[in-house]
Amino acid sequence: MLAKTIEIKDKRVFLIDQTLIPYEEKIVEIKSMDEMYFAIKNMVVRGAPAIGVAAAAGMALFIRDIEDKKFTHEALRKAGTYLKQARPTAVNLFWAVDKVLDYSSAKKIEELKESIWYFVYDMAEEDIAINKAIGRNGADLIPVGKKVNVQTHCNAGSLATVYWGTALGVIRELHNRNQLNMVYADETRPRLQGGKITAWELLQDRIPVTVLSDNMAAYMMGKGHIDMIVVGADRIATNGDVANKIGTYGLAIMAKYHSIPFYVAAPVSTIDFSISSGKEIAIEERNAEEVTHINGKRVLPEGVSIVNPSFDVTPAELITGIITEKKVVSGNYRVEIKNLKLA
Ligand code: MRU
C-alpha cells in the first residue's frame, strides 16, 4: 500500500520525495518553514491539494520554531505570504495558508504551539475523506456492470494529495468496483509526472496502467481505446474554466472531437471563488531545463529558445462535468458553482 504523501507526527512533518520517484521511495523530514518553501518550489511535494496541506504544515513549523516572545500575528502573516510565493497557479496553496491564518488570528502563541498541530492533522485527514467522496461521485457516473478505459493526465493521484487522489481517486474506486479495464496515463512532458509518478503509484496498487507519450492521445481516441478522460485541477474559476497541467486543454479539444466525456475531478478548495474566468489565472512559467533536459541529460541542441508554461486553461464548454466531493457539476457552471459554495 502507498504511504501517505504528507505525514504529520509528534509535531514533525514528513514528505515522500517525489523528485526521486520511480527510482526510489524516500521519506524526508521537512525541518522548517523555509525547507517547506523549497520543497514546494522544487516539487519534492507537488499536486494542488498536497501543496495546500504541505503549506499549512509549513505554517505549523513556523509556529513550532519561533520563540514565544518573538511571535506576532504579523510575523505569521509574513510567513504565509512567503509560502504563497512558492508556486503561483494551484489555489489550494493560498486557500490552506489563509485557513491557518484564520484559525490562528485570535489565538495566543502558547495555545497555538499545541493546537495548530491538531488543526493541520485534521486538514490532512479531511483531504483523504474528500478524495474518497470524489472517487465515489466519479465512479457513480459509470453504469453498474460497465467496464471502462480511462485516460488521465499528469498526476492527480495519491501523490498529488495527502492520500488516494482526485482523478486517480475516481480510478481507484472504479477498480475497487471491478469497473476499470485500463488506465491510459499520458506521460506528461516536460517533467513526466504521468510516466513517472502516475504509472508508479498505480503499479504499487496493482491497477492496470499503460503509458502514452502525449502525442499518442488523438490516435488512441480515434481507435476507440478511450471511454472517458478524468484529470485533476490546480484552479477552477467560477465560470467553470479549469487550469491544470499543460496539455490538458489539448486533450479536452481532442475529446470533444471524438465525443469522449471529459471530466475534471477536484475538491471544492480548488475553486477560486474570487475569479470569474480562467483568464485571471496566473500560469507558472518554469525553468527551460525541464524541456531541454531529461533526467539531467541535455536532449535538445544548445542555444534553442524554449517556452515552458506549466499549466493551461481548459474552457468550461469543453468540460463534461466537474467531480467534487459534494456533487458532480455540469451545464451552467456559473450557477452550479455558486450553489456549490452555498451547499
Ligand atoms: O506541476 P504539478 O506536478 O504540481 O501539477 C500537478 C497537476 O497538474 C495535477 O494534475 C493537478 O495538480 C491536480 S492535483 C490533484
- Note poorly predicted spans: none
Question: Considering the protein shown, what is the CATH homologous superfamily of the largest domain?
Answer: Translation initiation factor eif-2b, domain 2
**Largest sheet, order of strands side by side?**
6-5-4-7-10-14-15
Can you give the helix content as a percent range? 25-40%
Q: Which small-molecule ligands are present, each listed once?
A: 5-S-methyl-1-O-phosphono-5-thio-D-ribulose
How many domain regions? Answer: 2
In percent, how much strand structure appears in the residues? 15-25%
Question: What CATH architecture of the largest domain do you see?
Answer: 3-Layer(aba) Sandwich
Major sheet characteristics: 7 strands, mixed
How many DSSP E strands? 15
Coarse morphology: globular
Order of helices and strands: EEEHHHHHEHEHEHEEEHEHEEEEEH
Mean pLDDT: 97
Ends: how far apart?
A: 34 Å
Cα gyration radius (Å) = 20 Å
Q: Structural class from helices and strands?
A: alpha/beta
Q: In DSSP terms, counting alpha (H) and pi (I) runs of 4 or more, how many helices?
A: 11
CATH class of the largest domain: Alpha Beta
For this entry, what is the oligomeric state of its chains? Answer: single chain
What does this structure look like?
The chain is α/β, with parallel strands linked by helices and 343 residues long. It is built from 11 helices and 15 strands. The two termini are 34 Å apart. The mean pLDDT is 97. The chain folds into 2 domains: 6-131, Four Helix Bundle (Hemerythrin (Met), subunit A); 144-342, Translation initiation factor eif-2b, domain 2 (Rossmann fold, 3-Layer(aba) Sandwich), CATH 3.40.50. It has helices at 33-41, 48-65, 73-84, 91-104, 109-139, 167-176, 193-204, 217-222, 248-257, 289-292, 333-342; strands at 6-9, 12-16, 27-30, 148-152, 180-186, 209-212, 228-231, 235-236, 242-245, 262-265, 293-294, 297-298, 311-314, 321-323, 328-329. α3 (73-84) packs antiparallel against α4. The chain is globular. The strands form 4 sheets. Strands 6-5-4-7-10-14-15 form a 7-stranded mixed beta sheet. Strands 1-2-3 form a 3-stranded antiparallel beta sheet. A 3-stranded antiparallel beta sheet has the order 8-9-13, covered by helices on one side. Helix content is 40%, strand content 16%. The structure holds 5-S-methyl-1-O-phosphono-5-thio-D-ribulose. 5-S-methyl-1-O-phosphono-5-thio-D-ribulose binds next to α2 and β9.
